Amino acid sequence: MKLLIGGLWADAASGREEDVTSPFDGSVVGSVALAGREDVDRALDAATEGARAWRRTPAHQRMQVLLRAAALADERAEAIAQTISAEAGKAIGEARGEASRSGELIRLAAFEGTQLYGDSLPLDANPGTGFDKVGFTVRQPVGVVVAITPFNYPSLLVLHKVAPALAAGNAVVLKPARTTPLTALALAACFVDAGLPEGVLSVLTGAGGELGDALVSDPRVNKISFTGSTPVGTRITQLAGVKKLSLELGASCPVIVLPDADIDAAAAAVALGGFVNAGQVCISVQRVITHPTIAGDFLDALVPRVERITTGDPRSTDTAMGTLITEQEAERVERSIRAAVRDGATVLTGGERDGAVISPAVVSGVDPASPFSQDELFGPAVAVSTAADWQSAIAQANGTAYGLGAGIFTSDVSGAVRAVRELDTGTIHINWTPLWRADLMPYGGLKGSGIGKEGPRSAVAEMTDVKTVILHGRPW
Length: 476
Ligand code: NAD
Known about the structure:
It is built from 16 helices and 22 strands. By secondary structure, the chain is an alpha/beta fold. The strands form six sheets. It has a seven-stranded mixed β-sheet with strand order 14-17-18-13-12-19-20, sandwiched between helices. Helix 2 runs antiparallel to helix 5 and helix 3 packs across helix 4 (92-100). The longest helix is centred in the first third of the chain and has 19 residues, at 37-55. The radius of gyration is 24 Å and the shape is globular. The model has no long low-confidence stretch (mean pLDDT 97). It binds nicotinamide-adenine-dinucleotide. Nicotinamide-adenine-dinucleotide binds at residues 148-152, 157, 175-178, 208-209, 212-213, 216, 227-229, 232, 235-236, 248-251, 282, 376, 378, 404, 445, 449-450. Nicotinamide-adenine-dinucleotide (NAD) binds next to helix 8 and helix 9.
């Protein structure tokens, strides 16, 4: 497939292309153009022009374009799901679930683009000369937004950036993950076919490092919206200079199971929350912290459930869990599990690799200070440890560099309220795991998990600038 440069399909300046392959069997799924620095230049020139025209398009007209794109995403949902499953190895049932949310997410963003309200400023509340003046704020699009997205939700994570940015009146240059470019191009086609004007949307497929560095350091860019790993996010902060920046980064999400919890319900939720998309979700359950008195019962309830998760060919509806994104990633997860065992942990089930598939694993007796707890795993394994009291459970949950999501299972409302205050994470779930998201909710991490919030309303706020306007009357 071609690049999208300013709304027009185009070959890469170099003429180079590369194959996109299935992580399950290595078969060729498609091919994409390999963008280079010249294409970055073409896309940013187009975006600079496009941003000027699009911001002058009234919000209700922008909304109509997005609503048409949403309808096309609905119509094409099955094809998008097949593409996600083929290039990401995601089980087809999960891929259909993801694709089915695309149209609604665009509609949510389309609406938020019409809600660019400002504030009226009570200037006379300050001592001074405020009484003869009227002040208010207006919001306007930031201009050119660079969106850089990861592989794990190739539709939703693209749309969480592109749709609010367009709805708010910005031009966007999207750089999707190298492993999952076809989904991004299929979504871009929905916007183009919906009548998005030229200049406003570009999609550059190719190598993250080369394209990413050129995009984030370019002075024509007003805002960078990045979702991906913490190392790449950190590099972006070093190259970006003075630009607006949103970062949705890595995590090692904890779940606390207290003695007064419904143990069975907690086990059922963890058996889901640790293994959706083969654990390749930033809000996946990586760590479970239980009280020692219930650890045995919890594991007895968890392990058989995890053993029932079917793996294999992502195209089959009998497969619940597909592959990791590459065989190398599966090897990395396999090595991490082996290292945890060397650090004293026990594998109760799973952890075996077959190509890019890892069987769902439960690992108990994990040292909370070990890399298996501290570093993001991004794979289908849950690490179980114990904490003797409430305070140490919270300390363990908070005891990593990350702070994206957390869950706590308890029947005590007061304890739940206390946990809300004390857990250092962007999202907290009472009696569920962090692996739950409504697309409209504010979503983003604390600490090393990032900067800023997504969700259409928050993203539109972050993709607009606030200007303050003061009307000066004569003193009277
Ligand atoms: P990644 O960081 O390897 O890649 C993300 C994107 O950055 C890709 O498009 C990649 O090509 C690009 N990139 C690579 N080098 C770059 C550079 N130097 N400059 C700019 N861009 C560059 O991440 P991934 O492996 O695709 O995704 C997995 C990671 O994403 C995990 O760490 C996961 O936690 C994180 N993630 C976070 C959230 C969240 O909401 N916090 C959501 C999903 C995924």
